[in-house]
Amino acid sequence: MRVEIVAIGTELLLGLLVDTNSGYIAQQLADNGIDCHFQTRVGDNISRIKEALATALDRSDAVICCGGLGPTSDDVTREAIANLMGAELVFQQDIWESIEARLSVAGRSIASINKSQAMVPKGAVPILQLTGTAPGLICRVGEKAIYATPGVPAEMKEMMESTIMADLRRRREGDYVIISRTLRTWGLPESRIAELISGRIDTLDKLALGDDLQIASGQAEAMEPGNTLPGERERAAKSGSARLDVPTIAFLASSTEGVKIRIGIKSNDRGKALAAIEREEKAIREILGESIFSSDDETMEEVVAKELVKHNLTLSVVESLTGGLVAARIVSIPGASQFFKGGLVAYATEIKKKFLGLEGPVVSEEAAVKMAEGARREFKSDIAISTTGVAGPDKQEDIEPGTVYVGIATAQKSVGYKLSLRGNRDRIRQSATMAALDILRKHVMSL
Amino acid sequence: MRVEIVAIGTELLLGLLVDTNSGYIAQQLADNGIDCHFQTRVGDNISRIKEALATALDRSDAVICCGGLGPTSDDVTREAIANLMGAELVFQQDIWESIEARLSVAGRSIASINKSQAMVPKGAVPILQLTGTAPGLICRVGEKAIYATPGVPAEMKEMMESTIMADLRRRREGDYVIISRTLRTWGLPESRIAELISGRIDTLDKLALGDDLQIASGQAEAMEPGNTLPGERERAAKSGSARLDVPTIAFLASSTEGVKIRIGIKSNDRGKALAAIEREEKAIREILGESIFSSDDETMEEVVAKELVKHNLTLSVVESLTGGLVAARIVSIPGASQFFKGGLVAYATEIKKKFLGLEGPVVSEEAAVKMAEGARREFKSDIAISTTGVAGPDKQEDIEPGTVYVGIATAQKSVGYKLSLRGNRDRIRQSATMAALDILRKHVMSL
Description:
Number of helices of chain A: 15
Number of strands of chain A: 17
Strand content of chain A: 15-25%
CATH architecture of the largest domain in chain A: 3-Layer(aba) Sandwich
Oligomer: homodimer
Distance between the termini of chain A: 50 Å
């Protein structure tokens, strides 16, 4: 099954608004094994919207479009679809009443301008929503369908989850599931990870290629059996065209948050698929060990928080080059007060001396350890972690930017780590933050 | 002149990679008064790339495509373009030599796979680059042109700046300039700003509409004279179709960074255009006063840093709900050590007491003031700023999430401010951070 995405809005064309909707919808389609070959962005203009929708519908089984369903005169998606369907727009009293009810509950004035939102192309089915006022639309065009949602991300997501994906799954041929799991790693570059698990990928590739691999027509063109990173087979798999029951592995480097490894599978049997994913995850975890810090959407700070609570430990932080970034990520966790005592941003050398008793060079392993010990003492926490280093752009005490030390102090011991990080000032500070949290995670887990 | 954008890469279609390139290119086009009516994303597939390029070229004067110029077998943009031009790919020895030279300087091994990057469609002009290896391409197709750049944002930007925009400006009819200035505000909602400067907008609209407004054909369909926010005229203007010499005003709300106001103008005369922009900026500044904290790309923390250095003042920070975010933004400024002493993340109540001598409720105006005074004393800084409040999701001491206090202490006085912020935990913390920096900015500027 093929679905295209059309994002509507002049702001998108002007680069004034980043189109995050298309990426979200694309991911939903991929996760459900639905191919998406083209995505288009078009402005708030009836004839051009119609042209974009017609072209997309011509090439695909369905189109999901988002944007242009609001009440103002530049919201013309409804007209464009009606036009394409050759249907007239009909005022639907029941929709109008539900919009009126919602607006009056919200204490907002009901302008007659909102009436346009109760207009529906004849033959289309409205998708009512909980959050906003503009209903979405399901429009049958022959054997095909156009789904229209508002451009507001929360409203679009609500409709995708409540209605559109279910409708698409129903329309999709075959009765298979697509399941995926993402393993998140820190500390190894993508090339090293690829090297370490190339054996697994080769095994899976042989399994998949040994049979009549159902790759999507076009995907085959650029295909080459040995080319597995980020080879066509993973892509084919993610777009739902891979061989049933053989997991696929793909990488995604996300700069300062580490490398993600995605295991995906398509199967007729949910139990079988889950078991295969578990098996593959286990194999990769055996190879990469504690470099994997979480799976799916769990962040580094969430893992750290969970481990601290589990071990019933309190934390304090002292930061130089990261300047509050480590503390800010800890505080982003609701309920951080359970384990987080506080932090010190010891930026000026005199502050390091006054609060932590630090003498001598401030960018060294020894300094990092002393800072952590000082914080542990001053904040009376079980564990303290410290960062010091040179973020750049200039050298400091003749030390190269990217040279970073992390210290950790517990009741049992104090340890310092030296890191060599790359990138500009911002990237070095972000990477130092992740590295410090990762060191903390490993320490707590080893207790 | 019309230009379309085609972003190439299967990762984009799968939602694994966010397409930031199209937004950047779109902004460049808009800033140069070039219309962009459609943007397309397509995967690494020769026939579909060819189809997308052909469709785009058919509707426009030129196409900028990015992605798929790398050395691996799934990079097929070159082939697709050659195919579309009806030209063969020719190996260019001089390009190969420059790629070899670059790779050997970087100490990277030269794989024969890189040779594909020296292939150029016959008749196309390569755009050599400084950063990476893949050259871009300028391909004439009849009277029209396809520009191809790599998908790596830094490499794409380099080519846009060095070559493509200059070539487009040369091809563009007429010899006008587009100049814009963005004013950044904090503290007023978009609706209030719109209300305050609606008079200016009306005046400009009358000036523009009184004459033969050269709006782009399609833009006119949805146009309505009174509809000026974010009316069609601003859009027409940004896409280069507005009346010469009449400035336009547009708004852009960017959630936790405040509302931006963009003044744009198109003119035959750079001096005249600059003068008109200055005049408009002055008028808006008179209306909005100190709500405008900077212009163009200058961030709030950059303004704060500049003001502190100018007044030769040192700063310290004490944070509860923002948990290091204020300090982290200050430390993001290179040279922050010149004025920044340090910060305390006083998250646990006992820490507020121990370091700052704070007794009683910790979420109050009085607490915020005492925290700032304590920080000023402990860090021996000229100014200290504090944040305390409830980030949510739960109430604290029976206080609603979003209730935030900011305190500021200087040698002359201490003041507290109460804020009511909306949103989730993250948004409340981000807004509190901006608000604290803004209060600091206004205090320093008033000294």
